[in-house]
């Protein structure tokens, strides 16, 4: 389990064996779980699922947003690496032709 701490929150990142993406428990400094960040396949991004009745100020919300942005950047880097690893370069007259493409 990977743990990341901010001034007010603790993010506990873990991966279930049958899933490709991570789940992250979000807790306060008293180790009270406030919610969970999980992958939402239909949206193609990580989202925050708060526990009912939890309250947040702007600093805590900013920490959650920033952490989700980090997760999305990590995922983007992972996808690019997988494409490069799985790419089979085309050859033409013994000269390797590189793959060209664009990521959104």
Description:
This protein has about 100 residues and is of the alpha+beta class. The protein has one domain (about 1-95). Helix content is about 30%, strand content about 35%. The chain contains 1 helix and 7 strands; from the N terminus they run E-E-E-E-E-H-E-E. The chain has one helix spanning about 60-85, and strands at about 1-5, 10-15, 25-30, 35-40, 45-50, 90, 95. The protein has a 5-stranded antiparallel beta sheet, covered by helices on one side. Strands 6-7 form a two-stranded antiparallel ribbon. Strand 1 (about 1-5) and strand 2 (about 10-15) form a beta hairpin. The two termini are about 30 Å apart. Residues about 90-104 have low confidence and may be disordered.
Using brief descriptors, characterize the structure shown.
104 residues; alpha+beta; 5-stranded antiparallel sheet; two-stranded antiparallel ribbon; disordered C terminus
Brief description of this entry?
The chain has one helix at 58-86, and strands at residues 2-5, 9-14, 23-28, 33-40, 45-50, 90-92, 95-97. It is an alpha+beta fold and 104 residues long. It has one domain (2-97).
